[in-house]
UniProtKB/TrEMBL annotation:
Protein family per UniProt: Belongs to the NifD/NifK/NifE/NifN family.
All residue ranges annotated as the Nitrogenase/oxidoreductase component domain in the record: 19-426
Superkingdom, taxonomy of origin: Bacteria
One Pfam family of this chain: Oxidored_nitro
Keywords assigned: Nitrogen fixation
Protein name: Nitrogenase iron-molybdenum cofactor biosynthesis protein NifN
GO biological process, one term: protein-containing complex assembly
Species of the source: Zoogloea dura
UniProt GO MF annotations: nitrogenase activity
The protein's role, per its UniProt record: This protein may play a role in the biosynthesis of the prosthetic group of nitrogenase (FeMo cofactor).
């Protein structure tokens, strides 16, 4: 069991974490025909917008209430009112999802009260568009906290109790650490047993890099409001990541739907647990292709442990992603020397490391001295360069690579590919022996010069004293 410690530095140096409002808007991007909006200054929204655009290389819909000095002091109701009316007129989304920021949280805006007044005043104008609000102050918590709060707010706002369950329908509440490719893999796993997956939110349908047939100013896909309302009617609902426990518990309490939380879906035992649940829900055995994929993972583990065993790794990531990565690398025989994360979570005590530090990339760099590999997002590239070790990019943001949305690390196939990528990173950065690693003895060098070791044949015309450099002499095979 790891001990969890929080850094007490006066400031963050090269920050590791991202804010709650950004995590909430990221979750809203997984909802169909939605316009995420930050209640704060234009700069807050612009920063998050640019970060997501650079990571996904896609157009990201996001709006702001554009608070300034005066509106912050007097209150932001007018700004929210005008923003809602403008968005309704120009984009007509099915949902406008509002996330607060540190600016308006510090002021203490009663956004829920504002929305009641605005609905009473503009009910007909806003008809057909739902509005949901989530409190996400960016001076506490981190990215996955914002995602978790947004999902819980959406579930509480739209999920409806039912009297009957729909057999074969499985609800999924995924964590922020799962990529669009991860969600697609999870859907395929569920559908392999003849079950129907309902994911909320579903970034695999909105941020997977597809090109739409027509332009839309809102999100390009994702879970619909009907999907959210039908969660309570599912035969079973699963959640992935400890961060999703509040939303899952809230759904279970409201509807009585059976639920299961998986702390991770990377690793052989973790995927086996999911497959066992799906077999029980469907009443069917595992398909042959899943058995084959499991065998491929076992073979990958056998092959990969030669390259991962005994290696020292340092990981900096959100709590649930940190736990998943540390668990897989540890199961492969690597030693997690440094583990740094962004926010508190009950899962941190289960990370296979001596200590987990809630800190920044400077803390990670100091702890990674002497390590063989650094795992974190793209902002860790300078640390990896200074340490002289390779960087394995995980999480958000990855603005210096393409295809981040298609990184797969869950399920049998995802875990297999993760092991291969880690092993290949070590192989690619092994020291390649060359001629300079085997310098010729002094006698061979002297013979090549036509003299003896330690002697100079220049007749005193050069300034050397004996042999001052290694000369590589090509060996010509005898005929």
């Amino acid at each position: 069991m790891a001990s969890v410690r929080e850094s007490k530095k006066a400031c963050a140096v090269n920050p590791l974490k991202m804010s709650q409002p950004l995590g909430a808007c990221y979750a809203f991007l997984g909802l169909h025909n939605t316009m995420p909006m930050m209640h704060g200054s234009q700069g807050c929204t612009s920063f998050g917008l640019v970060l997501l655009v650079r990571h996904f290389k896609e157009a990201i819909p996001m709006q702001t209430t554009a608070m300034n000095e005066v509106s912050t002091i007097l209150g932001g109701m007018d700004n929210i009112e005008q923003a809602l009316l403008n968005i309704k007129k120009r984009a007509n989304p099915a949902l406008i999802a509002i996330a607060s920021t540190g600016l308006t949280e510090t002021k203490g805006d009663d956004v829920d009260g504002y929305l009641r007044l605005i609905r009473a005043k503009h009910g007909e104008t806003l008809a057909g568009t739902e509005v949901v609000y989530v409190s996400t102050p960016d001076y506490v918590g981190a990215f996955q906290d914002g995602w978790a709060a947004a999902v819980k707010a959406v579930v509480d706002a739209f999920s409806e109790p039912v009297t009957q369950r729909v057999a074969g329908r499985v609800g999924v509440l995924p964590g922020a650490h799962l990529t669009p490719a991860d969600l697609e893999e999870l859907r395929e796993l569920i559908e392999a047993f003849g079950l129907q997956a309902v994911m909320v939110p579903d970034i695999s349908r909105s941020l997977d890099g597809h090109i739409p047939e027509d332009f839309t100013p809102t999100t390009l896909g994702g879970a619909t409001l009907d999907d959210i309302r039908s969660l309570a009617a599912c035969q079973h609902v699963i959640a992935v990541g400890e961060q999703m426990r509040p939303a899952l518990d809230s759904l279970a309490a409201r509807s009585g739907v059976p639920v299961t939380l998986f702390e991770r879906l990377s690793g052989l035992t973790a995927v086996d647990a999911l497959v066992a649940l799906l077999m029980r829900l469907s009443g069917k055995p595992a398909p042959a292709r899943l058995k084959r994929q499991r065998g491929q993972l076992q073979d990958a583990m056998l092959d990969g442990h030669f390259h991962l065993g005994g290696k020292r790794v340092a990981i900096g990531a959100e709590p649930d992603l940190l736990f998943a990565l540390a668990s897989v690398t540890s199961e492969m025989g690597a030693d997690v020397v440094a583990a740094v994360t962004t926010t508190h979570s009950p899962v941190l005590e289960k990370v296979p490391a001596v200590e987990v530090l809630i800190g920044d990339l400077e803390d990670l760099e100091l702890g990674a001295v002497g390590c063989d590999l650094l795992l974190t997002h793209a902002h860790g590239r300078q640390s990896a360069t200074r340490l002289g070790i390779p960087l394995f990019r995980v999480g958000i943001p990855q603005f210096d690579r393409i295809g981040a949305a298609h990184q797969l690390s869950i399920g049998y196939r995802g875990t297999r590919d993760l092991i291969f990528q880690l092993a290949n990173t070590f192989i690619a950065n092994m020291h390649a022996h060359g001629p300079e690693d085997w310098p010729l003895p002094a006698e061979a060098i002297a013979a090549a010069r036509g003299g003896t070791a330690g002697a100079c044949n220049s007749g005193g015309s050069c300034s050397c004293s004996g042999v001052t450099e290694d000369i590589v002499v090509p060996i010509i095979p005898a005929r």
